[in-house]
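PROTEIN–LIGAND DATA SHEET

This sheet pairs a single protein chain with one bound small molecule, adenosine-5'-triphosphate, given as SMILES. Inputs appear in the order they were entered. The predicted three-dimensional arrangement of chain and ligand is reported afterwards as a token string under its own label.
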Amino acid sequence: MKNAIETINLTKIYNNNFKAVNSLNLEIPNKTIFGMLGPNGAGKTTTIKMLTCLIQPTSGQAIVGGYDVQKNPNEVRNLLGMVPQQVSLYKDLTVMENSQMCADYYGVPPDERDSRIEDLMELVDIKYARDKRVGQLSGGQKQKASLVASLVHRPDILFLDEPTIGLDPVTKRTLWDLIRDLNDEGHTIILCSHDMHEVDMLCDNVGIINTGNLVAYDTPQGLKDSLLENNKHEITKTLSQISDESEVSTSTKEYLDNISLKKMSILLKNQNDEIIEAIKKSSNVKSIELLRNGRVNLRIDSLDDMAVQNVLNDIISSGGIIKSIYTEEPSLEDVFIKSTSEVNENDRA
Ligand SMILES: Nc1ncnc2c1ncn2[C@@H]1O[C@H](COP(=O)(O)OP(=O)(O)OP(=O)(O)O)[C@@H](O)[C@H]1O
Ligand SMILES: [Mg+2]
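PREDICTION REPORTED AS:
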């Protein structure tokens, strides 16, 4: 089996006639970590709910672990684990009891059950609260309890819907390590997140969903590289299209305008008018911001391979002394904002 998940024109229209997922075609290769990104209300949770048999698709097909979610929901349920966006454990039961219930439901061998649970509790550091009722736990503790319950039957495919929201930085790292370990053991992971760093760092592939459509799909690096290769005219076109739309804020427009430009930050030992003029005139410089401490932040043409060199030459030949310099490639956040704003536009048209 090549793909852990395949969807064919998967669509969900809620009872109020709202189309939350629109003909989604998605392939998630087996044993990979897949990151699902998208703005609030994009249809991520709805997609996950269909893939985990919590709600029925309106049309289209979803194959999970080789089984059709509509024809073989029990088989699908048996091979997946789910950490939902809203923790769905029983509040009046303890952490231990919740996990035991899950284990029993999935037919975990009774002689292995409690030791598996204890091991997982240790792994995510929640053992100290094993006999506390879930209703009395903090937000992060609930997340951990939910994780233990969802992993106890060792699912092939694990869905995590914003699992690190509200976790402290140390616990977050523990969970990232755990996700990597599970993947190394051969589990496929589907991760919904608004944390770009998390997705960039963990995922083999990333899909960006907007208004129920898949608008981008690639490796994190592939997505970022595509911004640099993208023709600037395309972005300018998008900008002029959205210029009439009052709901697109000025700051978003400016952001989009600069998105395909490389960021460069230079710390000068001697900032004076002559040097600044030389930088402003430099043909590859598209915008300039002067900071009080002598730092100059620039946006330069990313399509010209000589841009960095040219800017530095212009500074040096006007007498500038450079103390430090760094350049920044586009981030996943840049890709996210660009691809989701463009499709909003097409949808409105
Ligand atoms: N039960 C429901 N009935 C009607 N509409 C719904 C229902 N559940 C979700 N929706 C709508 O479907 C759209 C997609 O919701 P969904 O929860 O899938 O978004 P999401 O991508 O997970 O967003 P977030 O990042 O905020 O979690 C939203 O516009 C939402 O209002
Ligand atoms: Mg959601």
